[in-house]
Design a protein that fits this description.
about 350 residues, seven-stranded mixed sheet, EC 6.1.1.20, ATP binding, elongated, about 40% helix, BirA Bifunctional Protein, domain 2, single chain, Phe_tRNA_ligase_alpha1_bac
């Protein structure tokens, strides 16, 4: 048995020294030291030895096991170092090469236009107010002089959640909430940007979800001329000092009188072309003097306070400013479209 152990040791050490990868070493370990390995098989026969031979053979077997284990560990360490060197050689990075350019993104065109409008009105003393997109029927309609069953509600196809909850069709509810918050005894000068929702068929000029910015100014002795002055400044800042505005009579339940605001066509300088449908003017937003009923429901005395309100769609503002013909381009995430306006 002594000769068997020495032979196993010599054979194992020779195979270990010739191994070229870690998987081969693992196979050698199992072949000699595993449960069914050569060394284990020899040790099972120790029961046939005499009492005098057992300690001698046992000691020799332990030395053989230790030697094979030590040789395996040394060869494993050596092969791992070789594998690491090969990997580093294959994955060498030339730090002197120029780096790959990083493509930076930018704010969405619609975000830029909204922020530009906000900055413009903040400069005129307006504050920016926000409100919930899931709104109550009262604030979305009734507080704005649109009682239940009012025919003007049909102008805004609404996404109702329950009979009293809905997705807001306009940002005007923020105006009603703000006036109530102010208690009917101090001026309100605000704009309310945000998303709004209406049941509509999506096409080049309509979307079921879009953005809106509404403005409100309530104080003592506010006149229609103040409204015209504010919108004239807005138009010239947004589209250029050569642009003119005009008021056309219209109807909105929450304002009286109500007007549509047109700006002179930049393409033809007001002479008439295909863009402005030969009129020389392009509709841009709606406005008017706040209806006395709206003031009363918000706690303001219409005999003391007056005000004006206006509402615009940033998508339309952007489309007119940048010559965009399809509103859906704002929402399709086409990188070719979006990158055109990073430096706009």
């Amino acid at each position: 048995m002594k000769e068997q152990l020495q032979s196993i040791e010599q054979e194992a050490l020779e195979k270990i020294s010739q191994a070229t990868d870690t998987n081969e070493l693992q196979e050698i370990k199992v072949a000699y030291l595993g449960k069914k390995g050569s060394l284990t098989s020899v040790l099972r026969g120790m029961g046939k030895l005499s009492k005098e031979e057992r300690p001698i053979i046992g000691e020799l077997a332990n030395k053989v096991r230790e030697q094979i284990t030590k040789s395996l560990e040394q060869q494993m360490e050596k092969l791992e170092e070789i594998a690491l060197e090969q990997q580093l050689e294959q994955e060498t990075i030339d730090v002197t090469l120029p780096g790959r350019p990083v493509r930076l993104g930018g704010p969405h065109l619609l975000t830029k236009v909204i922020e530009e409008i906000e900055d413009l009105f903040i400069g005129m003393g307006f504050e920016v107010r926000e409100g919930p997109e899931v709104e109550t029927d009262y604030f979305n309609f009734e507080a704005l002089n649109l009682p239940k069953n009012h025919p003007a509600r049909e102008m805004q196809d609404t996404f109702f959640i329950t009979k009293e909850l809905l997705m807001r069709t306009q940002t005007s509810p923020v105006q009603a909430r703000t006036m109530l918050e102010y208690g009917g005894n101090k001026p309100v000068k605000m704009i309310s940007p945000g998303k709004v929702y209406r049941r509509d068929t999506d096409d080049a000029t309509h979307s079921h979800q879009f953005t809106q910015i509404e403005g409100l100014y309530v104080d003592k002795d506010v006149k229609m001329s103040d409204l015209k002055g504010v919108l004239d400044v807005f138009t010239k800042k947004m589209y250029g000092s050569d642009r003119e505005i005009r008021f056309r009579p219209s109807f909105f339940p929450f304002t009286e009188p109500s007007v549509e605001i047109d700006i002179s066509c930049k393409a033809c300088a007001g002479k008439g072309c295909s863009i402005c449908k030969r009129s020389g003017w392009i509709e841009i937003l709606g406005a008017g003097m706040v209806h006395p009923n709206v003031l009363s429901m918000a706690g303001y005395d219409p005999e003391v306070y007056s005000g004006f309100a206006f509402g615009m769609g940033p998508e339309r503002i952007a489309m007119l400013k940048y010559g965009i013909k399809d509103i859906r381009q704002f929402y399709t995430n086409d990188i070719r479209f979006l990158t055109q306006y990073h430096n706009a």
